[in-house]
Amino acid sequence: MHFSLAELAERVGGRVEGDGSLRIERVMPLEEAGPADVSFFANRKYAAAFAASRAGVVIVGENEEAAAGRTLLRAANAYLAFAKVSTLFHPPREPVPGISPRAVVSEGALIDPSAEIQDLAFVGRGATVGARTILFPGVVVGDGARIGDDCILFPNVVVRERCVVGNRCTLQPGAVLGGDGFGFAFDMEGVGSGPRHFKVPQSGIAELEDDVELGANCTVDRATLGKTVVRRGAKIDNLVQLAHNVEIGPLSLIAAQTGISGSTKVGMGVAMAGQVGIVGHLDIGDGARFGAKAGVHNDVPAGEIYSGYPAVPHRDWLREQGATRKLPELWKRVRELEKQLKKLQEEA
Amino acid sequence: MHFSLAELAERVGGRVEGDGSLRIERVMPLEEAGPADVSFFANRKYAAAFAASRAGVVIVGENEEAAAGRTLLRAANAYLAFAKVSTLFHPPREPVPGISPRAVVSEGALIDPSAEIQDLAFVGRGATVGARTILFPGVVVGDGARIGDDCILFPNVVVRERCVVGNRCTLQPGAVLGGDGFGFAFDMEGVGSGPRHFKVPQSGIAELEDDVELGANCTVDRATLGKTVVRRGAKIDNLVQLAHNVEIGPLSLIAAQTGISGSTKVGMGVAMAGQVGIVGHLDIGDGARFGAKAGVHNDVPAGEIYSGYPAVPHRDWLREQGATRKLPELWKRVRELEKQLKKLQEEA
Amino acid sequence: MHFSLAELAERVGGRVEGDGSLRIERVMPLEEAGPADVSFFANRKYAAAFAASRAGVVIVGENEEAAAGRTLLRAANAYLAFAKVSTLFHPPREPVPGISPRAVVSEGALIDPSAEIQDLAFVGRGATVGARTILFPGVVVGDGARIGDDCILFPNVVVRERCVVGNRCTLQPGAVLGGDGFGFAFDMEGVGSGPRHFKVPQSGIAELEDDVELGANCTVDRATLGKTVVRRGAKIDNLVQLAHNVEIGPLSLIAAQTGISGSTKVGMGVAMAGQVGIVGHLDIGDGARFGAKAGVHNDVPAGEIYSGYPAVPHRDWLREQGATRKLPELWKRVRELEKQLKKLQEEA
User: Fold this and answer.
1) Which residue from B111, B70, B116, B68 is spatially nearest to B94, judged by alpha carbons?
2) CATH topology of domain C98-313
3) In angstroms, rounded to a whole number, what is the distance separating the alpha carbons of residues C131 and A306?
4) For residue C170, which residues of chain B lie inside 8 Å, CB to CB?
5) The pLDDT of residue B346
6) Hey, what CATH topology would domain A3-89 get?
7) Would you state the CATH architecture of domain B98-315?
């Protein structure tokens, strides 16, 4: 597979600086790229690698400075242009229609003829699988679940009974959609054997709207009643926990190992870094952003940036952190004040 | 499926305020419930939804105030009554006895005739599966493992060799019982190729006593020697990590993404919020409670509430947090003191 | 299986204090060991258990004190000696060569004749599985993946297409190697339906070098370009997240639930406790160590110990924690200073 540089530029809406007839054969990191390769430069941390790169062409932003003679593909959003170029070289895997004889498709399941059901995949009774969707080995689609068109369910993904996956969703290996929410009512009397935790039926479902991605081994619980929902275009990273009745707004990005407790509503375009924790029953406004490891105990207004534990507006957190860093000095100054004051008092 | 309101009240030990002959057909959230539905109200955050709800009947506590004319099912513990009502409408799935011809049951395994072994489930040599227990597709029960009666192992659960699951246990999808503990002894000499980490055999087992639930993709490691054990009635949420030789006491609740390091003993009725971390070799007393993200480095006495990182008694943590919040002000006041003192000294 | 004490000592390079002819039949914890058992004592927390133990012999360090008459196996590194003794009693499971008729091995896959492919395991097209390697039920090895010699892939492990596993690697149940990295470029225009996150192809691979262990349900993402790599002898615990293009140096130990963001390079012999988080694009020097829950935002030099969030050198963190603990007292003292100063001013 190869493209001319001019062709790449046209396909991604970029602009060539240099020889547009250059033949590009691969996408490579700056350090490993050679004369027939395209690479990209968007993070200043890698300026030295950019300067030293032997890449035939480098994708950069409109105003990026570069050494004279360096062939460039300039784009308003360099990272997006890179993503598009890379997609040309690495087109998504096409489904190979058909149901493997070593897969199990239960009674009443509806599999689109263009779908690909691989060996050792399982589809439950009355479940549906849409056009061009691929189920890899070990995938389990429960009874009555609905999987849309153009989805990829990687190996060992579980979608439990009655849950819903929209179109163009990708579920990385081991992701679990629709496990029971963690709901127990304390029953002091039990059934003759002392107290117990009485399980609250988790009779709702979990739903992914269109264009959602779930990371490897992440868990999205089904609702106690109603549904847990990840809305259109939201992306969820590995090992994220979304509890029962959580709602994640469209286009939100939730990084790895973040956990969101029951019934919390997250707005549109929210971004959470890794290992964030949000307690239950909160409202997180549109466009809010959270630093890594933030621990959120209260509602957050739209557009705010929160950090820390307990999380506060990011600027306050920075100030608090600065003040904490200097605490030993503060102690010293207070002790000095006490000494000086004592001296003054003795003199008076 | 439907019940009269009077019948529901009788079954859950509650009391009707209104027309007991009302026919109830579904359990629904406050916002979506209609005249033939039962809902519940237990969290004040949803007072407006309660006031506006069109639910035919709402389950509430004994002293909850409600608008005149509202039909109510009052109970001492509203959430427990709701759980019981919901269980009437959503009874647990009954097993369909038998072993699927597409399951694999190894030599010497003992499957109770009333158990349900679904397609693509695997049971190892000499393993046992008790009465009415259900193994979903993709479940792997290792050689010599023992699964009790009335258990549900959801898709892709793994119970490794020789591990033990009691009666009435539920393992959500992807849960792993009995993976090797993380134990390595540093071997400076290695075997001629320099230092290495020498694997410490994890020859013990992991055991769940009766009535335990494990969340999706959680991991409970087998012991180095002896056993890791989750005692009667404890409930473990998604993505929780229990390391080798950990013991979780009866009726404890461990929320999502919490991690407990090796050999720590957790008492009875302990409650941990999400993302808590407990270091190894500690004793956590009965009834202790932990705020979200608490990081625990020391033993905790029975009945205490700990928060923060490093975790301290919750009241101390609140005080520290308050003091930290006001640190910038403290700096300001100290600077003012220094100024005033200097002035006084110059005057003196 | 049994050994004489003298034989054990010789095999592990230790020294007997007592009767070398003692017949040892089991390895047991101090509390449960009897006269024919070997146990070990290396953590002072268990001194009482050591004193009370009925173990026939206890493995201890060279300078450990013990009651007169206690039979001991002394070794320079007691824990390593214990690991070696335990390995004698619990030798690793030998592979039973062959491919189960209920496994699926795709066209062009190369399985070494000494490998063991168990029921319901899957090997993709063109993949290779080395000598004496064991694939348990539910394992999925993707197209073109390469698994080395003497590996164990426990149930439901996923190795996605083209990824590489070295020799003598162990992957605990549910571990995922080679899921897509979390990479999206924001595309304001989308395709007529408004903004979207454009998926950046994750066309690289993930690789484990020799002697690596991955914990249960951990996730190691494939690279955007190039490879994510865990180098020789590193050990990764349960539920750890390694993002795209991360590099983990040889012999590093990463404890449970830690997360490392994209492109961060971790050096040789680094040790991270549980629930640590490291942001992306950092350099972590050789031999650096991290306390539990550390949140790391900056490069860390070789050999340093960091703790806290944001992480700082451990000694600074201890000092800050101490100062924070005493903040309420500091406020009190400042208020007293203000009072005294006011009094002085009024007198002046």
Assistant:
1) B116
2) UDP N-Acetylglucosamine Acyltransferase; domain 1 (2.160.10)
3) 52
4) 180, 199
5) 85
6) 3.40.1390
7) 3 Solenoid (2.160)
Strands A253-254 and A235-236: parallel
Q: What is the DSSP string of C88-113?
A: HHSPPPPP--EE-TTSEE-TT-EE-T
Smallest Cβ distance to C274: which of B225, B259, B320?
Answer: B259
Average pLDDT over residues B305-332: 91
Q: How far apart are CA B105 and CA B41, in angstroms?
A: 47
Any idea of the CA torsion for C308, C309, C313, C317, to the nearest 10 degrees? -50
Helices (H) and strands (E) counted in chain C, each on its own, are 5, 40
Does the predicted TM-score (pTM) go above 0.95?
A: yes
Residue A246 bridge partners (DSSP): none
- Count each helix (H run) and each strand (E run) in chain A, helices first: 5, 40
Is residue A274 within 8 A of residue A292, CB to CB? The reply is yes
What is the model's pLDDT at position B291? 97
| Residue of chain A with shortest Cα separation from C183 | A83
Would strands A241-242 and A219-221 be described as parallel, antiparallel, or unpaired? parallel
Contact between C237 and B182 using a beta-carbon 8 Å cutoff: yes
φ, ψ dihedrals at A49, nearest 5°: -65, -35
Give per-10-residue mean pLDDT for chain A (348 aa): 96 96 96 96 93 96 92 96 97 96 98 98 98 98 98 98 98 98 93 88 98 98 97 98 98 98 98 98 98 98 96 93 88 90 84
What pLDDT is recorded for position B344?
A: 85
Hey, what's the torsion of the CAs at B66, B71, B73, B76, to 10 degrees? 20
Residue C226 with chain A: CB contacts under 8 Å: 28-29, 32
- Partner-chain contact B86 A200, CB within 8 Å: yes
- pLDDT at position A328: 85
Residue pair B246/B227 in contact (Cβ under 8 Å)? The answer is no
Test A239 with C219 for CB contact under 8 angstroms: yes
- % helix, strand, coil for chain C, step of 5: 20, 30, 55
pLDDT tens digit sequence for B25-72: 999 999 999 999 999 998 999 999 999 999 999 999 999 999 999 999
Residue B189 is predicted with a pLDDT of: 84
So which residues of A are the catalytic ones? 244
Strand residue runs (E) in B46-137: 57-61, 72-75, 98-99, 104-105, 110-111, 116-117, 122-123, 128-129, 134-135
Q: Active-site residue numbers of B?
A: 244
Mean predicted confidence (pLDDT) in C144-159: 98
CB neighbours of C225 closer than 8 A, spacing ≥ 6? Answer: A27, A28, A29, A86, C203, C204, C245
Indicate if the alpha-carbon torsion angle B261, B263, B264, B265 is positive or negative: positive
Contacts of A237 in chain C (CB under 8 A): 182, 241
Q: DSSP per residue over B41-57, as a string?
A: ---GGGHHHHHH---SE
**Residue contact C174–B217, C-beta within 8 A:** yes
Spatial separation of the C-alpha atoms in residues B175 and B155, rounded to whole Å: 9
Structural tokens at position B279: 């270091």
**Smallest Cβ distance to B27: which of A106, A225, A239?**
A225
